[in-house]
Write a structure and sequence with these properties.
The protein has 599 residues and is α/β, with parallel strands linked by helices. Helix content is 42%, strand content 17%.
Length: 599
C-alpha cells in the first residue's frame, strides 16, 4: 500500500504526551522530560515558530525533545508528515528506531527514486548527502504535505555548498523546521540554511539559537557525566624527510609542524607511547567497572590500519578482543548496536562513532586521532558524557597537545556559528585572494601526511602529565612515570562520584602526594639533590623552551629563529640533543637578551 496526498498518518486524536510516552522515550534518555526539554517545549509552542534552533550538549536528550515536538504537532494536526535529516546512514536508522518507540513510524530506507512509501509510515529519514543527490524530488514531497523537517546536527548543512544548497531547495516549502545541534558550529563563511544570524559586538555575524542548553548547565543538572581528561606527555623521536632526527616532548612549545609530527609519533602503534596509554586506560576502565560493571571503553583512531593495530594491543593488554568498527563496513551499525547491548570492554573505531551514535555505557575513551578541530573534539567527547544514573564519571585519555588541552579546558564554553570576517563595502576586494588562500589551506590540511614525505617514527615514551577537570589542572610535581603510584592516584578514582566529589578528591590526592614528597625530601635538605641525567636534561630543556616562548611573546620572533640564533652563538647541536652545559649557556644567553631589551 502506498500513501496518497489525502492519506492521513496513523496518530492518536488525543494529545500524545500520555504516561506511555516516557516509557517509549528515545534510547538512553531519561524516563520523563527533563527540565530543559520541558522549558524548550514550552518556548516552542508559546512562540509557534516556523524555524526553531535548539543547541544542546551531547547526551542532553535532543532526540527526545524533537520527537516530543513532532508528536505534539501531529496530535494538534499542525503537521501531517515528518522528514528527519541525519548525518549518516546509521543515525537515520537510529532515529527511526527511537521514533518507533515514541509511537511515530518512520521509514529509514526511503529514497527519492521510489517517490512514495507505505501509508503506515508518518515520515521518512534521510541523510544530508541523500538530500543533495536529488533535492527537487524531496521538495515536491515536502510541498505535498504539511511537513515538519527535523535537521539533526544541522551544522552539517554547512560542510559543503552542495549539501547546504540541497537542504535549502528541498525544505524551503516545509511547514515547520526544527534544527538541532550539540556541538560548536564551524568557523567558516558557509551560512547554514534556516539558521538566523545577527552581527555581534565586533560586527561579525553569528548564529542565534532559540534555546541553548550547555554542558555546564547539564552537568549542574546531573544530565551528563563529569569528564576527567587524562593528559599524557613524553619524549618523541622521529626522522624527517630531510633525514634529520628530531627529539621533542609533547606539550612543550613547538612549531606547528613539529607538534603535528610529535603527535603522529605518539600515535604510532609501533612505539611505546600508545601501548602505555592504552594500558593506563584499561586500568582506569577496570576501576570504573568495579562500580559500573558494564562500563565500556572506546578508542577513536585516525585510520583503519591504526585501528586494527590498536585492537591487537588492547587484546594483549586486556585479554579480550575489542570490537573494531570501520566506516566502510556494511555491518558497522550492527556492530555498534551489539556492543551497546553487551558488556564487552573495548571498541575501536575510526570515525563511525564520533557523532550522534548513542552507546550510553561508554565511560572511558582514548583520543588517538590527529583530527583536532573543536567540532570533532566536542563530537568525540560527546560519546562519553551521557548519564544513565547520578554519580557516573567519564574519563578521556589524550595527548598533551596544546590545542587538545585547550578544547578540554573549554568544555563548558558555548559556541555559535561565526561567519568569518566582518563584511563591509571594501571587504570584497580581497575575496578572490582569500578564496585562493582557503583552497591552499584546505589542500595542505587534507594532504598533511603526504607532504611530510618519507617520515619515520623512531621511538616514543609516555609519561603522565596532568588531569584537566572543571577548568582546573591536577597533577604531581616532576615527571610521573606510567605505572607509578603517582599515576594511580588519578587512575584509581572511583567510577561513581558526584561532580563536586571528583573535584575534592583530585585536590586531596594532589595535596597529599605533595606533602608526602616534601616529608621524604626533608632529611636531605642539607645535601645536594641527586638528579638523574635524563631528568636534569628534561628540566633544562623545559626551562629553555619556556624562555624561548616568553621571548616570542615579547618580540614576535618565531621559536625556530630564536633557537637557531642561540645555536649560532653557543655552537653545538640542536636543543633536543644538546648537553646540560650547552643548555645552561643558552638559558643564560636568552636571559641576557631580555636584560638588554629591558635596558
Amino acid at each position: 500500500m502506498t500513501e496518497g496526498p489525502a492519506s492521513q498518518p496513523v496518530v492518536p486524536n488525543t494529545p500524545p504526551l500520555t504516561p506511555a510516552w516516557p516509557d517509549r522515550a528515545a534510547w538512553g534518555t531519561a524516563q520523563s522530560l527533563r527540565a530543559w526539554q520541558a522549558a524548550a517545549l514550552e518556548k516552542y509552542f508559546t512562540e509557534s515558530p516556523r524555524d526553531f534552533l535548539a543547541v544542546a550538549t551531547p547526551g542532553a536528550g535532543k532526540t527526545t525533545f524533537a520527537l516530543t515536538v513532532a508528536s505534539e504537532l501531529l496530535g494538534r494536526r499542525i503537521i501531517d508528515r515528518i522528514t528527519i535529516i541525519a548525518p549518516t546512514e546509521h543515525l537515520k536508522t537510529q532515529w527511526a528506531e527511537a521514533a518507533a518507540r515514541a509511537g511515530i513510524p518512520i521509514d529509514p530506507n526511503y529514497s527519492a527514486g521510489q517517490g512514495r512509501t507505505s501509508k503506515d509510515y508518518v515520515g521518512i529519514a534521510l541523510t544530508y548527502a541523500g538530500v543533495a543527490v536529488n533535492p527537487l524530488a524531496h521538495r515536491i514531497r515536502t510541498e505535498r504535505f504539511k511537513t515538519l523537517v527535523i535537521l539533526d546536527e544541522v551544522h552539517h548543512a554547512g560542510d559543503a555548498l552542495s549539501w547546504g544548497d540541497g537542504v535549502r531547495e528541498a525544505f524551503e516549502p516545509a511547514h515547520r523546521r526544527l534544527a538541532l545541534t550539540g556541538t560548536p558550529f564551524r568557523s567558516d563563511i558557509n551560512p547554514i540554511p534556516f539558521v538566523t544570524y545577527a552581527p555581534g559586538d565586533d560586527g561579525i555575524p553569528r548564529s542565534l539559537a532559540d534555546y541553548t542548553y550547555g554542558y555546564g548547565e547539564a552537568l549542574a543538572d546531573h544530565v551528563v557525566r563529569p569528564v576527567l581528561f587524562m593528559a599524557y606527555s613524553g619524549e618523541m623521536q622521529w626522522r624527517t624527510r630531510a633525514g634529520d632526527e628530531i627529539s621533542a616532548r609533547l606539550g612543550e612549545p613547538l612549531t606547528k609542524d613539529q607538534t603535528a609530527q610529535a603527535l603522529r609519533t605518539a600515535l604510532d602503534p609501533a612505539g611505546s607511547w600508545m601501548p602505555a596509554v592504552l594500558e593506563a586506560a584499561d586500568r582506569r576502565l577496570s576501576e570504573v567497572r568495579r562500580h559500573v560493571p558494564d562500563a565500556g571503553g572506546l578508542v577513536i583512531a585516525s585510520d583503519q590500519d591504526s585501528a586494527r593495530a590498536y585492537a591487537k594491543l588492547l587484546k594483549a593488554i586486556s585479554g579480550q578482543s575489542p570490537v573494531v568498527v570501520l566506516s566502510d563496513e556494511k555491518a558497522a551499525s550492527k556492530k555498534i548496536a551489539k556492543f551497546a547491548d553487551s558488556d564487552d570492554r573495548w571498541m575501536v573505531a575510526v570515525r563511525m562513532v564520533s557523532e550522534g551514535v548513542d552507546v550510553p555505557r561508554l565511560a572511558v575513551g582514548v583520543y588517538a586521532t590527529r583530527i583536532s578541530t573543536p567540532l570533532f573534539f566536542a563530537q568525540a567527547v560527546g560519546r562519553f558524557v551521557r548519564a544513565r544514573k547520578r554519580g557516573e564519571t567519564a574519563s578521556v585519555f589524550l595527548p598533551s597537545v596544546p590545542n587538545l588541552l585547550l578544547h578540554a579546558s573549554e568544555m563548558e564554553v558555548a559556541r555559535d556559528h561565526v561567519l568569518g570576517r566582518k563584511v563591509n563595502d571594501d571587504g570584497d576586494i580581497f575575496g578572490a585572494e582569500e578564496d585562493l588562500m582557503n583552497q591552499a589551506n584546505a589542500t595542505e590540511s587534507a594532504l598533511g601526511d603526504e607532504m611530510m614525505g618519507p617520515w619515520e617514527a623512531l621511538g616514543s615514551q609516555a609519561t603522565f602529565d596532568r588531569v584537566l577537570y572543571d577548568g582546573g589542572e591536577f597533577g604531581h610535581e616532576g615527571e610521573v612515570h606510567v605505572g607509578s603510584e603517582e599515576e594511580m592516584d588519578f587512575l584509581g578514582i572511583p567510577g561513581l562520584l558526584e561532580a563536586d566529589q571528583v573535584r575534592d578528591l583530585l585536590r586531596t590526592r594532589q595535596s597529599e602526594r605533595a606533602a608526602k614528597t616534601k616529608r621524604a625530601k626533608a632529611p636531605e635538605a642539607d645535601s645536594v639533590a641527586q638528579v638523574s641525567t635524563h631528568e636534569q636534561l628534561a628540566v633544562l630543556r623545559r626551562e629553555l623552551n619556556g624562555l624561548v616562548a616568553a621571548w616570542f611573546h615579547r618580540t614576535g620572533q618565531p621559536h625556530g629563529v630564536t633557537h637557531a640564533a642561540l645555536r649560532k652563538e653557543t655552537g653545538g647541536p640542536a636543543a633536543a640533543v644538546a648537553g646540560a652545559d650547552l643548555l645552561r649557556k643558552r638559558i643564560d644567553l636568552v636571559r641576557e637578551w631580555a636584560v638588554r631589551k629591558t635596558s
